[in-house]
Amino acid sequence: MSPEPSSETSSSSGLGMNLANMLDVLGCFGIGLRALALCTCLLLEAAACSRSSQKGLTLAGSTSVQPFAEKWADAYHAKHPDTPIHVQGGGSTAGVQAAISGAAQIGMSSRALTPEETSRVTGIAVARDGIAIVVHPTLPANDLVLEQLRAIYAGEIKTWRQLGGRDVPITLITREEGSGTRAAFEALVMDGRRIAASALVQDSTGAVRQMVASDPAAIGYVSIGLVDASVKALRLRGVEATEANIDAGKYPLVRPFLFVVPSQPLALVDDFIAWITGPEGRELTRREGLLPPGA
User: What are phi and psi of 10, to 5 degrees?
Assistant: First the structure.
């Protein structure tokens, strides 16, 4: 049955107000067109959904969190078939903005929130993840120290020969500005140094992995949970990037996976997060290669 005109008018008006608010928020934060496009699409989708059903959740943000959020959503939906959950990427910063603007009920972030962001929304840890440094499987290198990794990404070490390998230029692969994975890498590795302008920028963790897998001289960084046979994870000071070493506090590159919500989230949001951080969700989190929060 078609919605009554008064309801549709109210929804359209609300959408316009939300979009205006979103533009103000994005302007304050200096977010680019990519975040704007994501939030606009989410607002349009949310408006359409609100006219047909009040049920369901939309999650948006970090492409590192996204594949795991999809697993959590599928498992939760299997127990609650009347609750559709839509998961979209876009990057951590775009996800935070989507939560602030109301374009998504849950934003996903793979970096800590800024003080300005925490004054508007709350970050809830749903998992912990390590950042793996990955190279092509045929590359002879197996181990680095943080100082070497920093020098590589600062552009000071330019060839693998400088590290005892072949005399070929290092292909630097990095994530885009606004990526939570990049922000975490900069905070944990770069110590205030800038990533070299020569680095090739990719807009998702999957794209970084694919680029490294296709280039015998490449180096990149991805979520440990997304390392597969197409790439090789390097040891850092002899410590392998494994769940056990993260849990033991031995592996240095660890960051939280956050769900970002308003100060008074929907009851459904609370229930979904409680399931993820409860026994069933924690078991699934470990099975997918992450660690539960506070484990």
Answer: -60, -40
